[in-house]
């Protein structure tokens, strides 16, 4: 895993809850390039690893620009970015990866919901440079909460359709007209789960690969009905209680016990740990069935209700 040491060169408040960060490398040398839709994984000041889409042009980048929404119900990563990643702060950043790449198409429909605008903005800027035909639908609660709205309308004019529902269920945008008939265009959608679920549901009759999603949370790290449980770390001799709203990895971090991690969403395999005793509730997308009796991804998986785990840590 390539980690780049970077510095916060600038911060810009985009909305009351969203801050843009411009990150520049500490050392000389070219930054890895990236394509639209790419993200970086940033080690927040709290130690949490978080994925953020890149907003700027990645052809020959001298900086990485990301926007971070403070998640008040989150697990502390975004809050630590907002509160502690001040100008001049240094961070580790994993080189860009792209799970949301664009394919060549005659026309594009880009759909953004809330902070999901970040990869959509990068894609629109790329398509504009390439002279391609595209439209954007940008949904948010209100104009004041819509990051980059002014930049988008200035750059792309009436190709941007902004819709604000003001939290009113009756004003939710109706996508049916866009999806009733499959069209010769590619759709790229990034936003909250209900928006992506809706687009998935109404585009089921479209040809495979025509409608694409960026899902930053393929795995729910904690769920509303999760319970606290105990975990014994046999090598270090420590026993921790993992709170209902924390992962094992976060509980270890809170206790000052560091271990390796990367995606912190159960998808990369970095935090694989030997499970010595106990029955696990596996939530990752990495382990093979035959590995599950003796291994655990501590960034997302937990003890089964009422259970206790012993780990080889
Ligand atoms: S850190 Fe990637 S699977 Fe746990």
Core attributes:
313 residues; alpha/beta; Ubiquitin-like (UB roll); 3 domains; 5-stranded parallel beta sheet; binds FE2/S2 (inorganic) cluster
Describe this structure in words.
- This protein is of the alpha/beta class and 313 residues long.
- The chain has 3 domains: 3-97, Elongation Factor Tu (Ef-tu), domain 3; 108-214, Rossmann fold; 229-311, Beta-grasp domain (Ubiquitin-like (UB roll), Roll), CATH 3.10.20.30.
- Helices cover 16% and strands 32% of the residues.
- The chain contains 6 helices and 18 strands.
- The protein has helices at residues 77-84, 117-130, 149-156, 176-179, 193-202, 248-254, and strands spanning 3-15, 18-25, 39-43, 49-53, 64-69, 90-97, 108-113, 134-140, 160-164, 186-190, 211-214, 229-233, 238-242, 272-277, 280-281, 295-297, 302-303, 308-311.
- A 6-stranded antiparallel β-sheet has the order 4-3-6-1-2-5, covered by helices on one side.
- The longest helix is centred in the middle third of the chain and has 14 residues, at 117-130.
- The chain starts with a strand and ends with a strand.
- The model has no long low-confidence stretch (mean pLDDT 93).
- The protein binds FE2/S2 (inorganic) cluster (FES).
Class from helix and strand fractions: alpha/beta
Number of strands: 18
- Bound ligands, named by name, code or SMILES: FE2/S2 (inorganic) cluster
Number of structural units classed as domains: 3
Helix fraction, binned, reads 10-25%
Remind me, CATH topology of the largest domain? Rossmann fold
End-to-end distance, in Å?
Answer: 21 Å
Biggest beta-sheet profile: 6 strands, antiparallel
């Amino acid at each position: 895993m390539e980690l780049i040491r970077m510095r916060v060169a600038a911060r810009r408040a985009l909305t009351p809850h969203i801050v843009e960060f411009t990150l520049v490398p500490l050392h000389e040398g070219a930054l890895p390039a990236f394509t639209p839709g790419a993200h970086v994984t940033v080690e927040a000041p709290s130690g949490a690893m978080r994925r953020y889409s890149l907003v700027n042009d990645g052809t020959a980048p001298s900086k990485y620009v990301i926007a971070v929404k403070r998640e008040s119900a989150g697990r502390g990563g975004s809050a630590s970015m907002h509160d502690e990643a001040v100008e001049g702060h240094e961070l580790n950043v994993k080189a860009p990866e792209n799970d949301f790449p664009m394919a060549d198409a005659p026309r594009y429909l880009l759909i953004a919901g809330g902070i999901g605008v970040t990869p959509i903005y990068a894609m629109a800027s790329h398509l504009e440079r390439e002279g391609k035909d595209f439209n954007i639908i940008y949904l948010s609660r209100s104009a004041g909460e819509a990051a980059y709205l002014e930049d988008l309308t200035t750059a792309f004019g009436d190709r941007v359709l902004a819709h604000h529902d003001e939290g009113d269920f009756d004003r939710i945008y109706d996508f049916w007209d866009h999806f009733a008939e499959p069209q010769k265009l590619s759709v790229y959608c990034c936003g909250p789960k209900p928006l992506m679920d809706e687009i998935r549901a109404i585009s089921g009759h479209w040809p495979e690969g025509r409608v694409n999603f960026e899902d930053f949370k393929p795995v729910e790290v904690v769920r509303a009905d999760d319970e606290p449980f105990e975990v014994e770390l046999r090598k270090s001799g420590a026993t921790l209680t993992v709170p209902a709203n924390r992962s094992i990895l976060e509980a270890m971090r809170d206790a000052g016990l560091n271990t390796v991690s990367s995606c912190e969403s159960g998808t990369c395999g970095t935090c694989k740990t030997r499970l010595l005793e106990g029955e696990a509730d596996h939530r990752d997308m990495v382990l093979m069935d035959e590995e599950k009796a003796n291994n655990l991804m501590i960034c997302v998986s937990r003890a089964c209700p009422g259970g206790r785990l012993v780990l080889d840590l």
